[in-house]
Fold this sequence. Notes:
- It comes from Coregonus suidteri.
- This is Ferric-chelate reductase 1.
- The protein is mainly β.
- It is built from 1 helix and 13 strands; from the N terminus they run βββββββββββββα.
Amino acid sequence: xxxxxxxxxxxxxxxxxxxxxxxxxxxxxxxxxxxxxxxxxxxxxxxxxxxxxxxxxxxxxxxxxxxxxxxxxxxxxxxxxxxxxxxxxxxxxxxxxxxxxxxxxxxxxxxxxxxxxxxxxxxxxxxxxxxxxxxxxxxxxxxxxxxxxxxxxxxxxxxxxxxxxxxxxxxxxxxxxxxxxxxxxxxxxxxxxxxxxxxxxxxxxxxxxxxxxxxxxxxxxxxxxxxxxxxxxxxxxx
Length: 238
C-alpha cells in the first residue's frame, strides 16, 4: 500500500527516553513529494551510500545521504542541509562524530510507524557501547515521504561544529537503520556504513582519486630502443 504521506516539520526536539511515546512537539503540514537523487554528488553535495554508488531513485535497496553546508562561521560552525533515504520498517539514521572510537555522535533519525507514518528524532550515540539516547537539538524544515518501507527525508541542522581537536566541519559519518519500539521509541542502532574523516564542505572529499600512470618504464624502453638504433647505424657506417 502506498503511504506517500508528506510532511513539513519545524521543531525543537523534546528530550524523550527510549521507548516513551510522545510527539516531541512536532508540527506537521502537507508538502510536495521528496525526490532524493545522486544529482550533484561530488560536485555540489557530499554523498555517502551503501551499497557503493547505489541509486536512491531505483527499486533496489539503497541507504543514502547527502550533505550541503553553508560557509563556515566560527565559532558557530555551519548549517547542514541533509538528504536521507533508506529502506526500513522502523528508522534510518545519519550520524556525525569527530572520533568513531571515543566520545559521542550526533544522530539524526527519520522513522515511521503504523499510527503517524513519519516522525523525526535527534539523538546521541555513545561511541564506546553503541547505546542511543534521545537529545534536545534544533532541527528545521523537515520534509518527509514514506512509501512502504522506503523512507525519504530532508532537514536543516543549524550551527554544527566538530570538537576543538578537529576543524569545525570535519566528521566521520555513518549510516544506520533500526527498529521503532512502543510507538515512537528508538530501538538499537545498526550501523551499515562508516566513512573516513570527511570535510563536509568539500563535496568530493570522499571521491577516490586516481594517480596518473607512471612513465618510468616507457622511458627506459625508449632509451634502449635509441641505443639499439645507434648501434645498427654505427655498424653500417663503419
